[in-house]
Structures are given as C-alpha cells and as structure tokens.
Predict the structure.
Amino acid sequence: MESIVNVEKAVAKSLLDIKAVMLRPDEPFVWASGWNSPIYCDNRKLLSDPQARENICLWMAEIIREKYADVDVIAGVATGAIAHGYLVAHILKKPFVYVRPKPKDHGTGSQIEGILNPGAKVVVIEDLISTGKSSLAAVDALYKAGADVLGMVAIFSYNFNQARKAFEDADVELTTLSNYDTLISVAIETGYISDEYTEVLREWRYSPATWGKKE
C-alpha cells in the first residue's frame, strides 16, 4: 500500500476535485447534533467518480487485508457506507451486511440486513466520522447481534477530540483514509480555499460544539 501520507492527500484531493467539500462560513450548515459548521463534506459524491471510488475501495480493502486478515464479514453503516462497504466486501470476496440506524418498524424489525452468524468477525465500513455517535451505535448493534467487531475503516474523519475519546472508550480501533487537517492543508495548497477562510476553519475544528453560536 502507498504511504499513509500519500493516501491521505490523494483522498483529500479527490474530495476537493469532485466538489464534495462545501464551504459556507457566512451561512453555516447545521448538523444533526446541533453543531454549526462552516464546512460540509459529502463523501457520497465519490460514488459518482469511477476512479476515485475504485481507489478508495481498494485502499480500504488493503487496510483490512493487512490489519484484519481473519475477517469473516464486512458491514456497512447505513446509508452513506452501504455502497462502499459492498464494494470492499466484493473486492475481498467476503459476505456483506449493513446496519440501519434503528430497527425497522415493519416486517421483521431487523436492524442488521443480511446474514450475520453469531461469533462472526466483522470489520465495519463508514464513510465519514464526525462525533462518532452514529458509527459506534452501529458497532453496538453488531455486538448485540453476537458479532466480534475487529475494527472500523472510514473514508474521512473530522478528527474531533470527542470522537477520538468515544472510540477509545468503546475500545474500537478506527482507521481512516484521510482527515480534516490533511483536507485543509491540501485545500490551501491547491487554492481551493482562500486565506480569509483558513483561520475560521481551524477555529471551528477545535471548538465545533460552540462555534458560531451567540453568547
């Protein structure tokens, strides 16, 4: 596999090239957590770019081969990581399941779709890590179903302290292809963002829960 730094930069450049990153410091995005954000990263746009999609899934598969050679099943987190998860499972020739945010309110009431046998060793695929709450909820659902979760591989992380602590507390190993700090560095190098936004984006990174809120 290419060096970690090269992969981080390549993924960040892909996100910028396909305009998956949107900047709106003057009219912040509001996340489900209630946080205001001057930036929004939509990794699902990667699915529309065949080369970027292939590279990312090959890199994720290679990480899994190196770190989790005894994996039995690949699990994608709905909805953003279903497609990427399936493609990684296809590359590795492993069974695939996906995890809903909550059990269905009809039919079988399933939260995990697909065949997951108790004791199966699972690697979870996620598209983006923000606070980590929804990602770890998927891990919890897998544990409750009797799975042995080996770790999680994600495309991108905002690198929030809150998320890092949440994964540490849950004892879940997280590996990401790229991250917020690399994205901003590449965006500055390529002229994707102007100098006037640089400080705003760095300030938000260190205090996302309070950024943009009136005293």
